[in-house]
Each structure stands twice: as structure tokens, then as C-alpha cells.
Amino acid sequence: MNNDDTIFALSSGHGKSGVAVIRISGNNLHDFAKKIIDRATLAPRHVYFTNLRDDNGEVIDQCVVIYFAAPHSFTGTDIIEIQCHGAPAVINKIFEFLRGHNMRVATPGEFSRRAFYNDKMDLTDVDGLVALLDAQTDKQRAAALRSMMGGDSVIYENWRDQMLEISAYAAAMTDYDTDDLPPNISDIILEHIKTLYTAVSGVLGNYKVSRAIMCGINIAIVGETNVGKSSLFNRIVGANRAIVSDIPGTTRDVVSAQMDIDGYMVNLSDTAGLRNTVDFVEKIGIERTNTEIANADIVLHVIDTTSSPSLAKGRSRAVAFREGGWRVAPDGVVEILIVNKSDTIDSRDIRGAIYVSAKTGAGISELMHEIRNRIAEITNNGESTVMINARTYDLLITARDELFAALNDFNGDYDILSEHVRYAADAIGKILGTIGTAEILDKTFSQLCLGK
Ligand SMILES: Nc1nc2c(ncn2[C@@H]2O[C@H](COP(=O)(O)OP(=O)(O)OP(=O)(O)O)[C@@H](O)[C@H]2O)c(=O)[nH]1
Ligand SMILES: [Mg+2]
């Protein structure tokens, strides 16, 4: 990969469209831009309408061309943006023309890589961009945008500056006589490290929220066979996705659907009914149900009107449902107890349960209201937090552990303390990409699509 090459890519989506955007990045594109707009002068960031001609003078298409002069562009290089008609034939012809001018097709993420090397973006900004391009719901969009616009960088940079300062200060202290130092200097330093430790731990504590927003909130419908889980699933999804029958043990595999609830991505899954069985395939299904429960943020525990609450005894955890039908289990899973088939009875005697009928739709809006409340709770009401992904999570853990070691192992040796805090600063530097390894960069940029 050569940063001096002139590269181009289709930045808009593939397939037929009204308009397509082709982006070119290079070191000196002024003359080329002037040539294609066919004018004597060219001003950056002006919009030019032109008949784009190939080297034989034949018009390829009518286009809009914008020239961005370095460093005032997405990549920090010169950029030409060509808006042409979105026909594959037009795009191919323009590509052919560009190739003829010693330009090559960009690799996925190469534009962003240039932006990174030209200090236009740090790695958390790139992470944000990756997430933004993947965003399907409004909350995902908002969190990703915040990160892409540098919201997370500000926090990390601030931490890193403080850590580097403490580390340098502590290292310098070994050069002084203890008598020459302020008497409470160690307290001041330790207090400062403690504040940073608390801040890093706090952000780590939001990992679940961040994950729930970016990867989706996992909701599993579970319960005994034949209570109407699949019927309820179909009712919530609004389509006949899962097979329903009066034969117990109908659902074997996990049936999943993604939906948008209040801007949050939700992964809803219908599971095999829980019962003792000798059937080999059904057993595998039940294992899968347990995996879904383990991964769930919310469990919709369905019983039907023929069940008694004592049925819950068959499950691994004791169930003590609170008012509203939910409780926070020790592992943080929210459970909502649902009594289905309410159309078959008049009584409502299980306290704290939500009575629904998957058949008639009765009680479903109440259930959805309850689900919405629980989602709001899990996601901190959408309060924007630092966006954490697997890469940043590991590095945050390292930073936190180094700060902990600095505090915990301190025996008056400022050199060791300085080292620990510097390692913490390095971990944060890796989050930002200030300190980067080739693998981290390759992995991050390769997630981007062509033209980004
Ligand atoms: N009257 C009534 N019948 C229902 C209701 N919901 C489901 N049923 C019936 O209950 C039976 C079982 O429904 P399913 O949705 O397949 O139940 P399930 O819990 O998915 O069953 P398994 O997949 O075997 O675990 C079917 O005959 C449904 O028509 C309801 O609200 N009212
Ligand atoms: Mg089923």
C-alpha cells in the first residue's frame, strides 16, 4: 500500500442508482480536476457541472465535480469527487478512464487509512465510522456518530495526558531527596491515580450498555413446551415466522428475528420448550435454549393458564417475581413472567405476571410497554456513553489493571509506580492508535467497505 498513489473508489452503494459518487484521493489532483471540468480556473470546494470526456474527447457522462485541496479534505490529501449517473456502464467507463491516468482502485478502508495517517482521525473515530456504516437503528447511529466525531477521543486523550504526566512526575521524584519533596506528595499522586482508576472502571462498567446498543439487546422467549412461545414470537414480530402446532416439542431450533424497538436493535429469539425428553434432537434444541438464556439481556418466561407458578421450579434459578412481572436475576438478566392463553380463563391470580393472549392479541401492548421499560433501564435510557468494542475493551482492562497495580503494589518505589502508570497510558494510546501495531490497524481498516 503506497500513500503516494492516486486511488479511486465508488463511495456510493453498488447497483443501479440515480447518482453514484466516485472519490479520488492523491497528492496533486489540481491539474487533473481542471482538465475534467474543462475550465481555465478551478476553485476548491466549488461545484462544477461538466461533460466528462474520455481521452478521445468522447463524453462519458454529465457529471458534477468537486475538488477538495489538501489538507482540507476527508483524507487530508487532494480529493476529487465525481457525481455521475449511477449506471454500472457509466461507472465502469469512468473507472477505465481513471486507470488510464495512472490511478488504481483503493483497497477497503484505504481512504480512512489515509485520513488516519494524515491526523484527520484517530482509531476511535475510525471505530465510530465502522459502526456508523453498520448502524441500523437510531440509537446505533447516535452512538457511532458521537464516537466518529471525536466524543470518545476527548475522554481518552485527557486520561492519557494525565497518565503520562503522573508517570513522568513519579519517575523524576527518584532524583530528589525525600526531604526536598512536599511531605504529602505520595498522597497527592496516589489520589490522582485513584481518580483515573475510578474513571476507567466507570467506562468499563458501561460495556454492557454499549454492547446492548451496538450489538442489540438479546431477548429470549423461553418456557415449557406448548405454552405458546412460538405464537407469541409471531405476534411480536408481526409475521408467521415460527411454526405453531398443538404438538408439544414443535420448536427444536432457535428462531430469531431482528427488530427495532424505540431505536434500539433487538434480537428476539423463540426457543425449544423446556421439558424432560429422551428425543435426541429435542435435547440439542433444549441445550440451545439454555445458551440463549445465558446470552439474554431479557428473558420472556412464558407459562400458560394450565401451568402453575410452581412450574418455575423446573428451572435452574429460583424465581421470585416482583410487581410488574420482572426481576433482576443475580447475573443481571431481566425476566418478565408472561401467562399466555388468557382468552381461555377469566382469573388473573398470578401476581406480577403479565397476562396475554397470543391468539387474540390481548395484553400484547402491555407486554411491549414492559419490554420498552426494561430496555430503557438496560441501556441507561440511551444516555450516551463511550462506545466500547472488543478491541477497546481489552485495552481498557489493561489500563485499569495497571492503575490498580500502581496503587496496590506501591511500596515507596516511584520507579515501579511510574512504569505501571506509563503502561496504562500506553494501553490508552493503543485505543487511540497513537501507539499502533500494524495488526490493529489492518484489522480496524479492513472492516470498512470500498470507498471509505
Ligand atoms: N387459546 C389459545 N391458544 C393458544 C394461544 N397461544 C398459542 N396457542 C395454542 O397453543 C398451542 C401451542 O402453541 P405454540 O406457539 O406452538 O407453543 P410453543 O410454546 O411454541 O410450543 P413448543 O414449540 O412445542 O415448545 C397451539 O395449538 C397454539 O395454537 C393463545 O393465546 N390462546
Ligand atoms: Mg414453539
Task: Explain the overall architecture.
The strands form 2 sheets. Strands 7, 8, 9, 10, 11, 12 and 13 form a 7-stranded mixed beta sheet that branches. Strands 3-4-5-2-1-6 form a 6-stranded mixed beta sheet. It starts with 5 loop residues before the first strand and ends in a 6-residue tail after the last helix. It has 3 domains: 6-120, Gyrase A, domain 2 (2-Layer Sandwich); 124-206 and 388-433, Four Helix Bundle (Hemerythrin (Met), subunit A) (Up-down Bundle); 214-382, P-loop containing nucleotide triphosphate hydrolases (Rossmann fold). The protein has helices spanning 30-37, 88-99, 110-117, 123-134, 138-148, 151-173, 185-205, 207-215, 229-237, 280-295, 364-378, 390-408, 414-432, 438-446; strands at residues 6-10, 17-26, 47-53, 59-68, 78-86, 103-105, 217-223, 255-261, 264-270, 298-304, 326-328, 334-340, 354-355. It is of the alpha/beta class and 452 residues long. Guanosine-5'-triphosphate binds next to helix 9.
**Major sheet:** 7 strands, mixed
Give the % helix: 40-55%
CATH topology of the largest domain: Rossmann fold
| CATH top level class name of the largest domain | Alpha Beta
- Poorly predicted regions are 310-327
Assign the CATH superfamily of the largest domain: P-loop containing nucleotide triphosphate hydrolases
Query: How many helices does DSSP assign?
Result: 14
User: Which architecture name of the largest domain does CATH use?
Assistant: 3-Layer(aba) Sandwich
| Series of secondary-structure elements, N-terminal to C-terminal | EEHEEEHEHHHHHHEHEEHEEEEHHHH
Structural class assignment:
alpha/beta
The overall number of domains is: 3
